[in-house]
Amino acid sequence: MTANLPFSEKLIKKYTGEGDIEFTNYMPRSKTGTRDLEIKAAYDDGTRKIIVLRDYGASIKGKEVTVKHFENKEERNAEIYRLYSKENLSQVFLANFFGISQPSVSIIIKKYNS
Asked: Is the pTM of this model over 0.90?
């Protein structure tokens, strides 16, 4: 799954640990101007994590993005908006992570922007 990405297997494994990669989204030019790799990883305890690798040219930084707990659709939509606007995750990645369509993510974002 990671063979054609400009990030090494070793670096990806450093940040995902023992997780199984379920989905990746590579953006050669993200909203921040960096090359980004968004990773959805699943773990044996039933949890999932979002890991983002950002290539700044002189360095590559990785981080785990925290997903806040939500209990209803309104809270989920607020979290989708936060992840898009504050964490700079892509609509395509958020759609996959939350199990909805990319157009649905777009509608949620537009609602919060108005």
From this structure: yes
For 32-44, what is each residue's pLDDT tens digit?
A: 899 999 999 999 9
CB 53 within 8 A of CB 7: yes
Tokens of 114: 């108005």
Strand, helix or coil for residue 94? helix
Closest CA to 83 of 63, 57, 59: 63
SS3 at position 50: strand
Q: Token pair for residue 3?
A: 């063979």
Type of residue numbered 36: D
Taking the mean position of all CA atoms in its chain, how far away is CA 16? 13
DSSP one-letter string for 24-72: EEEESS-TTSSEEEEEEEE-TTS-EEEEEEEE-SS-EEEEEEPPPP--S
